[in-house]
Amino acid sequence: MRIKRVKIGIKSLKDALEDFARTAEMIEKGGKPKKSRGIYFENLNTFRRILTAKRLEMLHTIKKERPSSVYELARMLGRDMKNVTQDLEYLKEVGLVDVKRTGEKRERIIPEVNYDKIDLEIAI
Question: How much is the pTM?
Answer without folding.
Answer: 0.75
